[in-house]
Amino acid sequence: MLAPLCGLCGILFTACSIKYSFTGASISPTTHTVSIGHFQNVAPIVNPTLASLVGEKLKERFITQTSLELVEQGGDFDFTGEITGYSVAPVTIQSNEQAAQNRLTIAIHVVFKNAQDEHGNYDQTFSQYEDFPSSQILAQVEAQLVETIADKLVEDIFNAAVANW
Question: Which residues is 164 bridged to in the sheet?
């Protein structure tokens, strides 16, 4: 009696398989490729390296943390989008009405298409920021801030596509 029940459970578990990784990603076994288009920069303020930085970080994330093959276009997972925001604003005002901290905010509009499961598609804007002391000018800290914000954005984009929580 126990042997047939175990066999039935084994068949059920293998029939409904999803690939899981240690990154928390759940990807259908029928998904094999990912394509990541160029993220055009249409923000009012343009950082000339941001578009390629985000695209390369997203590619690296999928290459290193999934078994998906990167293809030029038409992947089972397909990402396109544009950088829509890049701004600096004061966030903490001191008693003398001067900013104590400034905030760099970057927004990216992403269109994700999942060829294997249309319910996984999204058309969403992701936004992240980092604060920096007002005693520093943006040019002094911009490269590090952009790197950190790009990492956060890629994390959000990746999780929205593959972390089915």
Answer: none
* Domain residue limits, the chain: 31-162
pLDDT (0 to 100) of residue 28: 85
Q: Residue 92's pLDDT is what? A: 75
How far is the C-alpha of 163 from the C-alpha of 20, rounded, in Å?
10
Query: What are the C-alpha distances in Å from 40 to residues 11, 19, 83, 119, 130?
Result: 47, 32, 6, 26, 22
Q: Which residues of the chain have pLDDT under 70?
A: 1-25, 94-97, 99, 164-165
CATH class of 31-162: alpha beta
In the chain, the amino acid numbered 164 is: N
Is the Cβ–Cβ distance between 41 and 82 less than 8 Å?
yes
> Which residues lie closer than 8 Å to 85 by C-beta, 6 or more apart?
43, 44, 105, 106, 107, 108, 127
pLDDT tens readout for residues 2-16: 555 455 444 444 444
CA dihedral 147, 80, 35, 159 (to 10 degrees): 60
